[in-house]
């Protein structure tokens, strides 16, 4: 019964609008009311059975069809669409979304939501929704067509709500499938299960069969024979069950499935036919009726309903096969949901009838909310807390957000209204933040509301409750502050308003995990606690409510990783003792079934479609498990998800659909006063002044990041001192002296492994905060060393153990030395302080393993050892699965054994495994809990007991520790950036390269017969190699390991000589002539010849300044001058070209000449006063001559012969840097394009996480190496835009004038050539080189279309020289920077190469800094390659964040630029 007034969107006449909406809804549902049988789904057990139980229940419940009341009017009418006989179902009313059966009430918009029944027992539909229902009734029951609802991703929640409500209204049983990239053929048709059958034959011939579905022992007479048979059975999945029993199949997220997966259902959609894996065939009902006339006669003579499954199977026998044919029920329909843009396969798209669902207009949204408020008899309108005017403001704000391309679903707005009811003091904008991009956060207003709420709660609580709450607020592991209390208040309000899922989003190490655990372990008043219902619909009291009406419970922890699929979030497969496949619950499913809180740690690591597969749980409180069972969230179930902030570059995980499903709260780092309170509260013995320094350093680094210190996300994270890192520092400071603070900070931030620029930033910030090493005299240092040795022995005695298995205690060969002694002391102190996990990092061969094994030997600790590699998986790291007698047996991995028996787990090569493997240890280290693949859980024992008595809980021994060993990230190491990802959960320790004294002592240990002079020579060589690596000259970090190999060879074969022994080390570089030259130079410096054919290096010319010159003639008319064939020096005259300190001629240091000309002699400079004597006419004529000479020179370059010797002389000086930069860039590209493990493949290696599926006979149980793009969900591979590198080179007059003094122009030419040559074939970069001089700020030299052949490169270099020679005096550095920054885009790199002659042109350094930071996201670096006195250093210091560097050594400029480019490439 149609009503046109439902489309009104006016904000006027609220009373009449509410009445109209009520009338419309009543008209639409007149005649469709019928009382549905109340049914409470059976709660699944912790270890769920197979899908067979669900399928059997489908067959057993068909008798309910015959018990219905046929006299009752069951017709359904929506608008002018009338259905007289809607489907009666298959006897599974639990699959029908429920709604209230009171005819005086309106349909629920959350029909399945028993959990939130108290909050929104009656919600009004909006007019658009009524039209959607009418259209679906047309397609579903009138036209019998499959249909699809589509629209923006932000309104996906509304589409689910609309579809489920429709199913409730017409009484449709629902099968629900949340599609994702992990959906496979087995999820859409049939899944295989393994069943073992034991057949016993007695002496009398009697046969007994036991299907072994339980673990009860069977005793057989001695004369019997028992035969065990293993068979594979097929369990129907949701689409097959829906087709057989006439249900409504909901395919949610049609656009998320990988391509070529959904065509499995194409024939089922088109012809209602489907060939199943068990050999049976589903056919259309009319085809089946034609094939089996007996079935048709039986239906005509009796019940008109579709016959039950027992009578609908027909077997066709042939000579070779037996085929079971089953009919598809005529009431079977497919309802799909998809978000736009949905690039569906045309054959799939054409099989659906689609309807667009857009966002609800503001007027209709206001009508809906007003009707909700009126119908619920809310007192809001009388109290004024949420009157209609405030709802109007809220709707207007939603409309404004939609105009700004941030749409909100109507259901999210409803959540916001309920949230507003709980916090009426919030503004209309604030209540929408939890579902917006910005997210809810703690500000002054929220803090004030929290205090007011706490005061009200305290007044309503008894004294006993207040005391208990105060005791819980501060524990040994958590210190409450105003900010953390405010966040907890926001969480509590979210749960009170009906949300099941709250996301805490913030940077790493900012108390998210600790706060979530602390929140659930406190008593929370259940003022609106949801109630459970028994089979008769009677409410039962919550099992988690105590006598004080408060609830507290230890939460379950589920540590997530990127490998988890949608199925893995809910169930994992295993086998029982008989080899039958079964399903084991994950922590999430346990929490749902048992009404427990759960923490999902790392929801940002999941793919967006995997995470959105849980949306039905958060919105409606139920889930369809992979084994076919539907579970309802029980009272007490609440979920907190932990995540990092979205990153537009790498992981923007908060899609519109996910934002709508999660109540998101942004967690920011604590303010200074609260941070001090936390650190002092956790470590009472700490020096308060030390805490203040640490907090100041946190702020100083944060300020550096905010001012643009970091070019990349990696750099920003490395320059962050998180709360976790501060806790590691303070834990040590609480037991040590303040003078250790600099060392602890360096270890926590891993500064010695940082690039040079980042390390300088940290050092400057530390100096600003007063964190500097104490200056100790030699006597004090000697006393400190002796005292440290005594302390080391005392610490060893305090924690030495008595091993039960001495063979597990390592006993390495170790030579005591001062260098390793400090590292041993540092590691031991952290171990004694109570650190659960240590991360020991350093270059190869520095002794990481020897140090750890030696310390374990001294401590007499048993060790479990595991070495990680590329193929290490989470499954293999946590367990060792194997197949025994047809069943999967999970053996304890070294990790589990160490945790159970209190041993030290040494994780070697931790950087070689995928980062998510080691990151999984976060839950074990910080949260004290880790779920294992076989369903067991490692957990530390707690004082409250919790559920530690559970058979699946493995208690962790208190002495259990983890020591991880790793190399630094980046070239030449091949490992992953472990430090960036998880270093903050470890206590970090750096093993530096050994000093000369320690290295000499070790070499003498391995070479007692080697002469001391030879050992000392090797030590000096290795020290020089180390310095060359630190400067960037050598890529490979030669370590003491190679030196030991040389000494051992010399000790046994002295006749080979040092040259022969060294050859064993440098043979890797024998064919690399560039590197070999550098090695030969280092070895030759110490008298060790290395055979090489490389050319000798050039000796740079040393320029000498000739002093002040007084010209002998007056300045008159500019000219080139005569050419002296002998090239004798000429000073102070006006005759010869190339002279110095004279007048009129081309030369250097003089006045009135047309341009500069360097003849290689000392330069004499005339004064500025004498320069001013040159007439204006002479100056104009000189400029004209310079311009003409420049044009002539450029013409010669374009047409002249290639000067190969000139090009080669420049190229040879930067040949090594060119090669290193190319190798580094290739390494970075290789890492980004590195192949990964592709899961769910039909060929490849067996996936150890899917052994049970393989045992059951499934096909996609393999994994293989492939490119990440092969895992892409769509066919559109995104093309990355190249990084624009704009180099501003100084080609002003001073570059040419002072080149003979410090070689600045020569260095600039070498750096320019290095960039052109190194980047010429790298498509990831677009190189633009622009010159600036006194003539212009924009002189194009190289652009994206410039060829990079040697001829063109030389032309560019000669052009730079020509401009510097012939341009007029002046400086355009500021103008060049301003122009380049204004034209740059976010992510571009600008590299300014200039001399430091700014004072001469009255340029303020602050102005330079301001221009460099004028545009956010543009990374600008200044390299000063010349200057006099302290001017370049003072200018560099005035530029913040080490964005300016001084290069006064010709060999350093290419190295500086190489590091900047390599950093940008990351």
Distance between the termini: 64 Å
Residues in helix, %: 25-40%
* Strand line-up in the sheet with most strands: 47-46-45-48-49-50
Q: Overall mean pLDDT score?
A: 79
Low-confidence stretches: 1-57, 59-68, 100-122, 214-219, 299-311, 377-384, 526-550, 1094-1104, 1273-1278
Q: Estimate what percentage of residues fall within beta strands.
A: 15-25%
The main pleated sheet reads as:
6 strands, mixed
Anisotropy-based shape: globular
Care to count the β-strands?
50
Query: What is the SS-derived class?
Result: alpha/beta
Report the C-alpha radius of gyration, rounded.
39 Å
**Helix count?**
55
Write a concise synopsis of the structure shown.
The chain contains 55 helices and 50 strands. With 1466 residues, the protein is α/β, with parallel strands linked by helices.
Task: Characterise the protein shown here.
The protein contains 55 helices and 50 strands. The protein is α/β, with parallel strands linked by helices and 1466 residues long. The strands form 16 sheets. A six-stranded mixed beta sheet has the order 47-46-45-48-49-50, sandwiched between helices. Strands 4-8-13-3-14 form a five-stranded parallel beta sheet. A five-stranded parallel beta sheet has the order 20-23-26-15-27, with helices on both faces. A hairpin with a 5-residue loop joins strand 21 (571-575) and strand 22 (581-585). Helix 1 packs across helix 11, helix 25 (688-706) packs across helix 29 (756-768) and helix 46 (1215-1232) packs parallel to helix 50 (1304-1318). The longest helix has 24 residues, at 1176-1199. It is globular. The N terminus is likely disordered.
